[in-house]
Amino acid sequence: MATTTIALPGEQAVGFPQPGRWRALARLAKDNPVGVLGLVIVLAFILLGVFGPFLAPYDPRQISAGPQLAGPSLDHPFGTNSLGQDMLSRVIGGARISLLIGLAAVGIGVTGGAFIGVASGYFGGVIDSFIQRTGEAGSAFPGLILYLTLIAAMGRGVDTIVVAIAIGAVIGGSRVLRAMTIVLKTSPFVEAARAAGATELRILATHIIPNVIPIAIVIASSALGAAVLAEAALSFLGIGVEQGTPSWGIDLSGENLDWAANGEWHLVAFPGAALSLVVLGFNLLGDTLRDVLDPRLRGSLR
């Protein structure tokens, strides 16, 4: 624990303890219970995605792992589908696919969007005009048409979904970070650094980028939920991952919907609950990060 040493005239210095970083984090968690809930959901989702193959009781692709259309039981807590596949294993496998696509797409999209947005906002001029007109043209192009075009060019699969979601993340993220960069580059502390002789590269590295990173983190946390939902929507429509792949969108579509209408509720209830819970977790975490990482609140963890 850090201490502050105070020495009175003619006396020995006395050390007074100061609250440590862990105590500050505990206080932050206490003040933001909703954010903690979102973080717990997100961490659980990540653990399922990483360790899913070891946690699933059956192979999610295995046919006749149990009786067909069996309801929830001790052997199959989420029941089975019309092929006898274990629904718990498929829900866990769906987390892995969603995590892979979400992290790859958002990682590429937000990183690219941050670079483009900062460059556009800081340098302005022709660079800014070109980037913004290109972004406007991209955002005006329907996302579904873009995805179908990518399927024609690249074929159907995870890579195509990642590229489609990443393009959307680049366009959306770059606009927000461009606006943030424009505000920062006209701030008094940047003007002072420039007057003191700091180079543009140094200003970018020490003043602009460190202040943009927290906003990029907030964008990424919110975009992850949107990416998971986008993957499920494409799979639900039958144009996402290949049929048979454990995916929440696939388990919510097609034959499962028909069986659910006939009383087999477990076929869509558990994949739907998993999807809703994960998206909710990312949204709660993103809202909390937006409050905590607000520049006006910076320093609350010190």
Q: Nearest-angstrom radius of gyration?
A: 25 Å
Main sheet attributes: strand count, strand direction, barrel closure: 2 strands, antiparallel
Unreliable sequence segments: 4-17
Cα-to-Cα separation, first versus last residue: 13 Å
Percent helix, as a range, is 55-70%
Number of strands: 2
Structural class of the secondary structure composition?
mainly alpha
Q: Mean of the pLDDT scores?
A: 84
- Percent of residues in beta strands: under 5%
In the CATH scheme, the class would be: Mainly Alpha
What is the CATH superfamily classification?
Answer: MetI-like
Q: What is the CATH-assigned architecture?
A: Orthogonal Bundle
CATH fold-level assignment: MetI-like fold
Describe the structure.
- With 302 residues, the protein is an all-alpha fold.
- It has a single domain, classed as MetI-like (MetI-like fold, Orthogonal Bundle).
- The protein has eleven helices and two strands; from the N terminus they run E-E-H-H-H-H-H-H-H-H-H-H-H.
- Strands 1-2 form a two-stranded antiparallel sheet.
- A hairpin with a 7-residue loop joins strand 1 and strand 2 (14-17).
